Amino acid sequence: MSSKVLTVPFKANAAQRHHILKQRHRATNSAAYDAALRQRGSLTVWFADEAIADWKAEPRTTRGGQPRYSALAIATALTLWAVFRLALRQTEGLIGSILALLGLDLAVPDHSTLSRRAETLALPPAQHGSAPVHLLVDSTGLKLCGAGEWLLEKHGTRTRRSWRKLHVGVDADTGRIVAATLTTSDVDDASQVSALLDQAGPLASFTADGAYDQDGVYDEVARRSPGTAVIVPPRSSAVPSETAGTAPTQRDRHLQMISERGRRHWQKASGYHWRALVEADISRFKRVIGDGLRSRTDRRRGTEIALAVGALNQMLELGRRDCRNFRVWAGMMGEETPMARRKAPYIPDQLLDQLLAGADPRTAFDPNGLLDGLKKALAERVLNAEMDHHLANEPGNSRNGHGAKTVLTDTGRIDLAIPRDRQASFDPQLIAKYQRRFPGFDDKIVSMYARGMSSREIAGHLRDLYGVEVSADLISAVTDAVLEEVAAWQARPLEPVYPLVFFDALRVKIRDEGLVRNKAVHVALGVRADGTKEVLGLWLEQNEGAKF
After folding, report:
1. Fewest CB within a 10 Å sphere: which of 169, 411, 507, 524?
2. Does one domain contain both 160 and 308?
3. How many domains, the chain?
4. Residue 241 contacts by C-beta under 8 Å, 6 or more apart in sequence?
5. Are strands 399-408 and 337-338 parallel, antiparallel or unpaired?
C-alpha cells in the first residue's frame, strides 16, 4: 500500500464518494434573496446632485489639453460596460439614453475616450473597515481577447491563446472580495501574497491551498499580523523544520496533526474547508463578469478587474442567501441546523489562554503535564458534584474529608482526592469503589490483545508509551472480563425469521500457539423486517469456504 498522502483527498477521491450524501441547503430568506437577484439586473439609475456636479472634470492647471469628463463619469461608463458585457460604442449609446431619459444635460463620453482613459483611470481604494478579516486566497485564469471560435470554424484549428492570472482575497465572513491583483500566467501564486495583504488590511487568519505552502508566505503574514493563523495544507513531500522539536512553527504543527490524525481530520480541525468560499466567489465572477478580459493592454485590464470587483461587491450588498443545511438519510429528512459562516470554538479562546498562562506548551501533553492536570481537576470536580447530589438525597449525612486514590489513565497515573461521607454510602459513578483504572483504559488493553499482542507485550507497550507499570494478572483479568460479555452475546435471543441473511468472511490476524496467523472469520449478517441489521454469529476457520 502506498504511503503517499493525498494533498486534497476530497477532490482526489470524488469518484469513490458516491455513497456519501451531498449536503443540501435550504434558504431561509428566499423572498428577500429573489428580490436582491432581480435588483442586480435592474436598470433603475439615479444621479445624485453631487454626481451631476462632479460629472465634468476639474480644470487642469498644468500643460496639456483640458479633460472633459471626470474619473467618476469614466468609472460609471466602464462599470456598465463590464457588468452588461457591452462593446464600447454600445456603452456610449447606453449612457446617452440614460441621460436623455433622466433629462440631464451632461456630455456623453465617446468610445475612444473610454478606451484611452481606462489606461490611466485612478480608482479610490475600497474601504473594508478596521476589524480583522479571515482572508481566503486563491487564483484563477482569465482568457485574453482573440480570434476565438472563428479560427476553429474557419480553418479547423485553434492557436494557443494567451491568458492572465487573477489573484483574489475574500473575506470569509462577508463574502466580499477585499483584494485582487492581475498578473501574467507565469507568476507564482505565493509571490502575490504581499500585494493582496496590502489591500486586505488586518488579518484574523490566512487560508489558501497547497500552492502557498512556502516559508515566504508564513513570514509575510507573521510580519504584518503576528500571531495570525496560517491555514495552508503542507505538500505531500513536506518535512518538519530543524527546530520542530524545540520551537515548532505553525507548519510543523500542521504536519504533526496530519501525521497523527490524518489530513481529513486536519482539514476539519483547522477550518480549511472554508476555502471553498473563495472558489464560489471565483465562479460568481466568471458567471457574472465572464471568463475573459476584453481590454488590450495590461493597465486597462487592471482597471477592468477593479471595476468588476467593485460591481460584484455592490451586488452582494443588495442581499445574499441565508441557508440552513440538512442531510437526508434513507429517504428521511434530518433535523435542520443553522449553517454558520465559521464554526465557533468548542472551548472559548479566553479560557484556553488562562490555562496556558505561565505554562510551557511543549510539555502540555507530557506525563503529569497540563493535560493530566486538567484531567485531574475535571475528575475531582465531577466527583464533588456527585457527592453534592448524593448528600442532597440523604438527610443527616455529611462530608467526611477526602481519600487518596491513584488511578491508571491512557496517559499515565493520576492521584485523585475522592470525597468521603460519614455514613460511607457514597459510591461514585465516574470512579467506582475499588476501581483503579480510568474509563477507557480497559478498552486499550482489549484492543491490543485483539491485535495478537501477548500479556508481556501489552505490559511493555504501556510502560514505554505511558510510563505505567501493569502486571500480567491485571491484563488477564481485563481480557477475561470480555469473555463474560461474549457469553452473554452468544446466549441472546434471536428473531424467529430474518427476511435476508448475508454470509461473508474476513481475514484477520490471530495469535495461535504463540504465533500470529491469518485466519478467516465467517460472519452471518441478518436483516430484520424493519430494515435493521444484526450480526447473527461469528465462526473462526483456517480458510475461507462454504463448509462452516
Report:
1. 507
2. no
3. 5
4. 248, 249, 251, 252
5. unpaired
- For residues 519 and 450, state if they share a domain: no
E-only strand ranges, 226-371: 229-231, 292-293, 323-326, 328-329, 332-333, 337-338
CA proximity to 476, closest of 446, 438, 516, 434: 446
Query: Is residue 220 included in any domain, yes or no?
Result: yes
Range of the domain at 160: 127-288
The answer on 201 and 136 residing in a single domain is yes
- Phi, psi (degrees; rounded to nearest 5) at 328: -115, 120
Domain boundary among 288, 312, 340: 288
Cell 495461535 belongs to residue? 512
> In which residue are the cell numbers 441546523 written?
337
Nearest-5° Cα angle at 337, 336 to 342: 150
- 456: nearest Cα among 442, 480, 474: 474
In this structure, what are the phi and psi dihedrals at residue 530, rounded to the nearest 5 degrees? -85, 0
Residue 547 within any structural domain of the chain: no
C-beta of residue 86 within 8 angstroms of C-beta of residue 98? no
pLDDT in tens, the chain (548 residues): 444 444 445 555 556 555 555 666 677 777 777 877 777 777 777 788 888 888 888 887 777 777 888 888 899 899 889 888 888 999 889 888 988 888 888 889 999 989 888 888 888 777 766 788 899 999 999 988 655 555 555 555 555 567 889 999 999 888 889 999 999 988 999 999 999 998 888 888 999 998 999 989 999 999 988 888 999 999 888 888 888 888 888 888 999 888 888 888 898 888 898 888 899 899 989 998 888 888 888 899 999 999 999 888 888 887 777 665 544 333 333 444 444 444 555 566 666 666 666 666 666 666 666 667 767 776 777 678 778 888 888 888 888 888 888 877 766 677 888 888 888 888 876 677 777 666 665 565 666 666 566 667 777 766 665 556 666 666 676 666 666 777 777 788 888 888 888 888 888 777 776 677 788 888 888 888 888 888 888 887 888 776 66
DSSP H helices, 319-431, are 349-356, 370-392
Say if residue 393 is in the same domain as residue 450: no
SS3 425: coil
Chain centroid to CA 74? 41
Does pTM top 0.90 for this prediction?
A: no
Tell me, yes or no, whether 267 and 353 share the same domain. Answer: no
Q: Please list the helix, strand and coil fractions of the chain in percent, rounded to the nearest 5, in that order.
A: 40, 20, 40
Residue 158's domain is classified under what CATH number? 3.30.420
Beta strands in 275-375 (DSSP E): 292-293, 323-326, 328-329, 332-333, 337-338
Q: Is residue 361 part of a domain?
A: yes
Phi, psi (rounded to 5 degrees) for 464? -75, -35
Contact residues for 84 (Cβ-Cβ < 8 A; gap 6+): 94
In a domain, 136, yes or no: yes
Same domain, 146 and 267: yes
- The reply to whether 102 and 134 lie within a common domain is no
Domain-ending residue, one of 472, 489, 506: 489
Cell digits of residue 495: 428473531
| Residues in contact with 331: Cβ distance below 8 Å, sequence separation at least 6, in sequence order | none
Q: Do 132 and 280 belong together in one domain?
A: yes
